[in-house]
From TrEMBL:
<feature type="domain" description="EF-hand">
    <location>
        <begin position="101"/>
        <end position="136"/>
    </location>
</feature>
<dbReference type="Pfam" id="PF13499">
    <property type="entry name" value="EF-hand_7"/>
</dbReference>
<feature type="domain" description="EF-hand">
    <location>
        <begin position="137"/>
        <end position="169"/>
    </location>
</feature>
<keyword id="KW-0677">Repeat</keyword>
<keyword id="KW-0106">Calcium</keyword>
<feature type="domain" description="EF-hand">
    <location>
        <begin position="64"/>
        <end position="99"/>
    </location>
</feature>
<dbReference type="InterPro" id="IPR018247">
    <property type="entry name" value="EF_Hand_1_Ca_BS"/>
</dbReference>
<dbReference type="InterPro" id="IPR002048">
    <property type="entry name" value="EF_hand_dom"/>
</dbReference>
<dbReference type="GO" id="GO:0005509">
    <property type="term" value="F:calcium ion binding"/>
</dbReference>
<dbReference type="InterPro" id="IPR011992">
    <property type="entry name" value="EF-hand-dom_pair"/>
</dbReference>
<protein>
    <submittedName>
        <fullName>Calmodulin-like protein Fap272</fullName>
    </submittedName>
</protein>
<dbReference type="GO" id="GO:0016460">
    <property type="term" value="C:myosin II complex"/>
</dbReference>
<dbReference type="InterPro" id="IPR050230">
    <property type="entry name" value="CALM/Myosin/TropC-like"/>
</dbReference>
<feature type="domain" description="EF-hand">
    <location>
        <begin position="28"/>
        <end position="63"/>
    </location>
</feature>
């Protein structure tokens, strides 16, 4: 538990450092980029390697070839280090077409989790998507995540609860 809190403090310090560098980007957008970056960064060293990129791309339903991954890394890795830091990641994300309505990003993310399209995310759906992005969670961890977000205590996460959960991340 203490380790988790320490990690959260480290994450916030790192985010604050980058926030100063990218002050021209609205914080809510930068925070979205940061959360996405942390999903890619499996080992938590604030650097993305090609294998981490591949894992998340597959989790999002894409199947890039090794060559495509190498091209992506080369395009993004501006300093040629073999890693993508958050600054380079922001550069990549800033080039992506974004919907005029920022809520569309959240709706799209919710639909990605809500595999059966019933408007709710259950434990199996949450575990499936987390596993696909490389997170290994126990049943207890999945249940804890749902319980934390599940305001109406029905055992599922609806869209409103999902929005609230994402806003606190």
């Amino acid at each position: 538990m203490e380790k988790e809190r320490e990690r959260e403090r480290d994450d916030e310090k790192e985010f604050d450092r980058w926030k100063k560098e990218f002050s021209q980007i609205p914080e809510i957008i930068l925070r979205e980029y940061w959360e996405a970056f942390k999903l890619f960064d499996k080992d938590g060293n604030y650097l993305i390697i090609k294998e981490e990129l591949a894992t998340v791309m597959r989790g999002l339903g894409q199947t890039p070839t090794e060559e495509e991954l190498s091209i992506m890394m080369t395009e993004v890795d501006k300093d040629g280090s073999g890693y993508v830091d958050f600054g380079e990641f922001v550069g990549l994300m800033s080039k992506q077409p974004s919907p005029a309505d920022p809520e569309e990003d959240l709706r799209r993310a919710f639909r990605m989790f809500d595999r059966d399209g019933n408007g709710q995310i259950n434990a199996a759906e949450l575990k499936h998507i987390m596993t696909n992005i490389g997170e290994t969670l126990t049943e207890e961890q999945v249940d804890d995540m749902i319980q934390e977000a599940d305001i109406d205590q029905d055992g599922m996460i609806n869209y409103e609860e999902f929005i609230r959960m994402m806003a606190t991340k």
